[in-house]
C-alpha cells in the first residue's frame, strides 16, 4: 500500500498525519509549542521549537507505522500564513517567528488604509491590509527596529525555515508568498510597489515555486533521526486556509467551507483570482487553476474558552470533577435559552478582528443587557456572536463570488450539535459536516498525491471525504435572527469609530503597569 504524510504547521502545534492511499489515517502525532506574548500585541513562536516538533512528529509517526521500503511516497506541508522570521547570512534566526496574531504593526496598517496606498496594494496582492501580514510587519521593523532590520540577510516564514533546515534550499511556495501581502497574484511574482514600501529587495527573499514543487536530498543527520529515506520527496504544499478547503472537499464552484477552531474562516474556491472592491476578503493561491477567496476571523473557539474560564469557572471545576467536557456542559446551558438570547448581542472581537472589518483595534462587547439576562444568556449570545460574524463574512463573499451552492462546516465547533444547528439557522442554509479527520493535513496529503502523480486531479479528494451530518435550518428561529443580524452589523459599523480610542487607552494602561513592574 502507498502512504503519504501531511504535516500541518499550526499556530499552537504541528500535526503529523500518515494517510494510506484511500485517505484513511494510519498514524498521528500532535506536538505542541508555546506562543510567546512578552509585551502587549506580541504573538511569537520559537522557530527551532517548531522545527523540533516537526522532527519529533515525523519520527513518532514513522516509527509506529514501521513501513516497508518504498511504501512512503512522500511528505507534504501545510503551514499557518503570515509568519515572519529574520535570518542572518548563515540562515540563523535573528528573531522568533512573528505570527499572524501579532498586532504590533497596527499603526502602519492604519496608515496604509487611511492614505489609500493599502487599497492599491490589496488590489494587486489579494491580501487585505492588516498587521497580520509580513508586509506591514516589515514596515514596522524597518521603522522601529532599524538596526535589526538592516542586519537581516533573509526574510522568510516558518515553512521556508523548516525546508532550509532539512534540505539546504530556500524556497517559498506561491500560496505562502501570496499571504505575505507582497505577491502580485496577476503576475505571479513579488510586487515591486509592495517590496519598495517594505524596504526589501528580491535577493533577500526565497525563490518562488509552485505549491506542487518538490524537494529531496534531506540532510542525512536529520534523515537518520527521523528514520526516513533522505531521497523521499517533500512537496512544498500550500498555506493552511486553502488546504483546509481541499481537505473537506470544498473545491467545486459555490461550495463554501466554514471552519471554526480557535479562530475561524469562510472560504470558497474559484478558477481565477477575484478581488473585492471593498477590500473585505482575501484571494489566496492553492494550485494551478484553484484560488481561494474568503475571510478569516480571529475570534472562534477562543471566545468560547474565554467565556468558560472567566464567566463559568465554577462549572469548569464541576465538569472536571464529574469527568465531563466543560464545553459540553456550557452548550447544554446555552441550549435552554431561546434563539437570539432574548435580545442580547455579543460582538466577539476579543483579539481584534480580521474579516470583514480588518481592524486590529476592534474590541468585544455585550449589547442589550437587562436585569433579566443571566450567564446562560451570555454564553448563548457569545456562541451566536461568533456565527453572526462569520455570516457577515459570507455576505461579503457572496458579493464577490455569488451565493453558495452548499456549505461544508468543520473545526472543533462541529462537535457541538447546538453550534452546528445555530450555523444552519443563522445562515438559513443546509450545513454539511464532512467526515474528514484533520482536514488541513489531508488537504496537504492530497496536494502531495497530485504533485507526485498518485492521483490525476485534486477532485479525487471526494473519495476520501464522507458526510457525517446534515443540519437543516429551523424556521422557528428565522424571525429572531433576521431581526438581530442587521442590528449586529449596524453596531459593528458604529462602534468601529471608537475602537481605536479604547484600544489606545488599554495599551497606555498596559504600558503603565509594565513600567511599574506589575503583571498585565
TrEMBL record:
Entry-linked PANTHER family: GLUCONOKINASE, SUGAR KINASE
Name of the protein described by the UniProt record: Gluconokinase
Matching Pfam families: FGGY_C, FGGY_N
EC number: 2.7.1.12
An example molecular function term from Gene Ontology annotations: gluconokinase activity
Keywords from the UniProt entry: Kinase, Transferase
PROSITE patterns: FGGY_KINASES_1, FGGY_KINASES_2
Domain (Carbohydrate kinase FGGY N-terminal) ranges: 3-247
Family: Belongs to the FGGY kinase family.
Residue ranges of domain Carbohydrate kinase FGGY C-terminal in the record: 257-451
InterPro entries for the chain: ATPase_NBD, Carb_kinase_FGGY, Carb_kinase_FGGY_CS, FGGY_C, FGGY_Carb_Kinase, FGGY_N, Gluconate_kinase
